[in-house]
Amino acid sequence: MNQTTITLNNGVQIPQFGLGVYSITAGETTYNSVLTALKAGYRHIDTAHAYGNERSVGKAVKDSGIPRDSIWITSKLWPNGYGEDITPKQLDKMLERLGLEYLDLVYLHQPLRDYNGGWKALEDALEAGKVRAIGISDFDFDDELFNSIVEPARIKPQMFQIECHPYAQREHWQEMAKKYDIQIEC
Q1: pTM for the full model?
Q2: How far apart are CA 104 and CA 159, in angstroms?
Q3: In the chain, at which residue ranges do the beta strands (DSSP E only) sit?
Q4: pLDDT for 141-153, tens place per residue?
Q5: Residue among 99, 152, 154, 150 at smallest CA distance from 126
Q6: 42 tagged catalytic
Q7: In the chain, where the domains are located
Q8: In the CATH scheme, what architecture does the domain 5-20+74-185 have?
Q9: CB within 8 A of 56, min separation 6: which ones?
Q10: Catalytic residue among 31, 51, 82, 107
Q11: How far out from the chain centre does Cα 139 lie?
């Protein structure tokens, strides 16, 4: 499979097509799904702490025999892991569950709790090389919410994950993301 990529606002390229493992049971089912996808040419896997299957994803990535730098791994922090002091520890736990030294993309999964503190910690993790890109997921309730994280950010999000498809084109959010050179993932 020849993958097309998108260049993010920090110069990093992300494979445009990927496998999301939401609702896939941890263990053999996730492991086999990810391994099969990687063997078929997928190079982008999207998981989350809340999905409970990061260990299975990490094992499949390791067992695939594909060089780590050829596979894009996205995960998401759950709101109870947000905060300048909490987020770095949660990132370390996420990396441990996945068996990885770095993540390609980490999202704040939902706009709850101390998401601004979590964002500051993600900015630090990006600068330290623990992650290659950072983003926000589901920050599309209204402009005020979106702006409350994007405007004060020292490093603007590279990605904005929302529902967006032919039946919900979300033109307003496409324009908001474009204003800050943020790519939409859906």
Answers
A1: 0.93
A2: 12
A3: 5-7, 13-15, 19-20, 44-46, 72-77, 103-108, 131-137, 159-161, 183-185
A4: 999 999 999 999 9
A5: 154
A6: no
A7: 5-20+74-185
A8: Alpha-Beta Barrel (3.20)
A9: 26, 27, 28, 29, 30, 31, 34
A10: 51
A11: 14
